[in-house]
Amino acid sequence: MKLGFIGCGVMANAMMGGIIKNGLLKPEEIWGADPFEGSRQKTKEQNGIHVTESNLEVIENCDVVFLTIKPQYYADAISSFRDHVREDQMFISIGAGRTLDYIAEQFENKPVKVVRVMPNTPAQVAEGMSAACPNQYVTEEETQTALTILRAFGKAELMPESLFDVVTGVSGSGPAYVCMFIEAMADAAVLGGMQRSQAYTFAEQTVLGTAKMLMETGLHPGVLKDMVSSPAGTTIAAVRKLEEEGLRRAVIEGVNACTEKSIQMQSAK
């Protein structure tokens, strides 16, 4: 399999790096196109792949092609190669808000295989969470190929396109909420006398370790919370205060606001 990228930005390079590091493909089996010489040079230095200015060169050499350009450039980019797409080629699109119907329109409604993906920024450290939805032309085997590629830089799950706005609310924008929580924890530690650098280390490792513990044990978050909460102890006092201050509701409303905004942005296009 030869893999291509139309666009060689930060996310594309992170994906390439994960794919190479996991041994899924060798650098010489990956192609990347970008109009900017600086981006091409950085990609070559970082991942050692074939780089070119020509989108068409990627299309001619690759079996699976990622669309990793900014959403506003989709129409121009696709128009540059749509007449040269092979029947067996598959495209993986990560453009925010670019639906399968929109992409089909750019391909002039030809039977092109497309998998729409919503990744998130932790993909840059091989800990991403991606939702994937194939169109009607993608076979089951091809879908599994797409998931295998996505899992080289994190986790990936199939998701109906109707839930992609919810995915945006939970995982797409989720890193921002987690950062706010870490920042608040660190601020509280500093208030208590801890040095700022240490405060961030303690908060970050606590979030990372807790998430890893939940994923590896399969415990429900509520069960782990109860395990830490001793009768009349410090943790339950904190839990009570957080509930009193509306932490749970604030998170739910924040995720819901993000989801609703994503829906509004879709309908405005």
Name the helicity range: 40-55%
N to C succession of SSEs: EHEHEHEHEHEEHEHHHHHH
Head-to-tail CA distance between termini = 35 Å
Please count the beta strands (DSSP E, at least 2 residues each): 8
**Total individual domains:** 2
CATH superfamily of the largest domain: NAD(P)-binding Rossmann-like Domain
pLDDT averaged over residues: 96
Largest sheet: 8 strands, mixed
How large a portion of the residues is in β-strands, by DSSP E?
A: 5-15%
Rg, nearest Å: 21 Å
Account of the 3D structure:
This protein has 269 residues and is α/β, with parallel strands linked by helices. The chain has two domains: 159 residues, NAD(P)-binding Rossmann-like Domain (Rossmann fold, 3-Layer(aba) Sandwich); 96 residues, ProC C-terminal domain-like fold (Orthogonal Bundle), CATH 1.10.3730. The protein has an eight-stranded mixed sheet with strand order 3-2-1-4-5-6-7-8, with helices on both faces. Helix 7 crosses helix 12 and helix 8 packs across helix 9. It is elongated and about 70 Å long. 30% of the residues are buried.
SSE arrangement:
Layout: E1 3-6, H1 10-21, E2 30-33, H2 37-47, E3 50-52, H3 55-61, E4 64-67, H4 74-79, E5 90-93, H5 100-106, E6 113-118, E7 128-134, H6 140-150, E8 154-158, H7 164-172, H8 174-191, H9 196-217, H10 221-228, H11 234-244, H12 247-267
Parallel strand pairs: 1-2, 1-4, 2-3, 4-5, 5-6, 7-8
Antiparallel strand pairs: 6-7
Helix pairs in contact: 7-12, 8-9
Function: Catalyzes the reduction of 1-pyrroline-5-carboxylate (PCA) to L-proline.
Pfam families: F420_oxidored (PF03807), P5CR_dimer (PF14748)
Domain Pyrroline-5-carboxylate reductase catalytic N-terminal: 2-97
